[in-house]
Design the sequence.
């Protein structure tokens, strides 16, 4: 039987712990040659002014779990310039203003299709390293980060702790000056969060509003598929103020470039 699942159903049945375990197994097997991936394929065809249709596939076989997987993105993308840098934006133009990303799983024992589901939720789980995002205890998620919680409060120290806990560095780079987006299927350099970037011109209120509404002071709508706005937006005002203090205490670094 082929399961057809929604993002909501996956969110319900896939605990973060299971996701972490499987990710670890898969990366180990890939490293030892016991699993295989097929390079990502990208096909672009012109669609409109500056916009292209992008057909993208990624696949892999994971014998330990007796599964082969295909992820497919069918999107309309647009390139435009922002602050002197060229950005690529995926446009949510499928009915209901949606992106189209599907995952298909097949059995390596029988070849049969096992499941078909959208990639929205699982890709976020994977990208966030099955993230510390959420309400898990630190020990449950951060294997290699050893942090003791400072007293909660609107302090630089507590803000620094939250930034580590929520793993902003995973996407925004070690120095928080921007970095290569961790999902190789996305071509993107994340923005600089130090005062050397746009945040150097924001007020605390503007920072909170950006995280809570997903729209920056310059009117740019953050892509919720890429920046976990919903999860970060779940932090309380005081937690966000602490993060703000911490980010503002960082040295003024230039935007990371490749
Ligand atoms: C899964 C990757 C990821 C994580 C984790 C993440 N971000 Fe982001 N963030 C992004 C991406 C990608 C963008 C740019 C999105 C866009 O332009 O559509 C972004 C944009 C932003 C912006 C807007 C900056 C600007 O100059 O426009 C802020 C502020 C921000 N992130 C703060 C944070 C903070 C604080 C954390 C941790 C609590 C965090 N992010 C964690 C990926 C991430």
Sequence:
């Amino acid at each position: 039987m082929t399961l057809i699942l929604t993002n909501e159903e996956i969110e319900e049945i896939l605990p973060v712990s299971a996701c972490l375990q499987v990710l670890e197994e898969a990366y180990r097997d890939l490293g030892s040659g016991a699993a295989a991936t097929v390079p990502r394929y990208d096909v672009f065809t012109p669609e409109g002014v500056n916009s292209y249709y992008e057909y993208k596939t990624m696949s892999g076989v994971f014998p330990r779990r007796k599964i082969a997987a295909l992820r497919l993105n069918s999107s309309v993308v647009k390139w435009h310039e922002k602050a002197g840098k060229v950005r690529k934006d995926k446009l949510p133009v499928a009915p209901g203003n949606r992106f189209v990303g599907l995952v298909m799983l097949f059995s390596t024992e029988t070849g049969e299709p096992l499941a078909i589901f959208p990639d929205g939720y699982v890709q976020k789980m994977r990208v966030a390293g099955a993230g510390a995002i959420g309400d898990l205890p630190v020990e449950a998620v951060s294997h290699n980060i050893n942090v003791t919680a400072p007293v909660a409060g609107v302090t630089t120290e507590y803000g620094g702790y939250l930034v580590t806990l929520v793993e902003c560095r995973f996407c925004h780079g070690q120095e928080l000056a921007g970095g290569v987006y961790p999902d190789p299927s996305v071509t993107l350099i994340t923005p600089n969060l130090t005062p050397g970037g746009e945040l150097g011109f924001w007020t605390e209120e503007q920072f909170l509003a950006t995280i809570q509404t997903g729209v920056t002071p310059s009117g740019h709508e953050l892509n919720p598929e890429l920046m976990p706005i919903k999860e970060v937006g779940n932090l309380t005002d005081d937690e966000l103020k602490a993060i703000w203090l911490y980010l503002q205490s960082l040295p003024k670094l230039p935007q990371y470039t490749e």
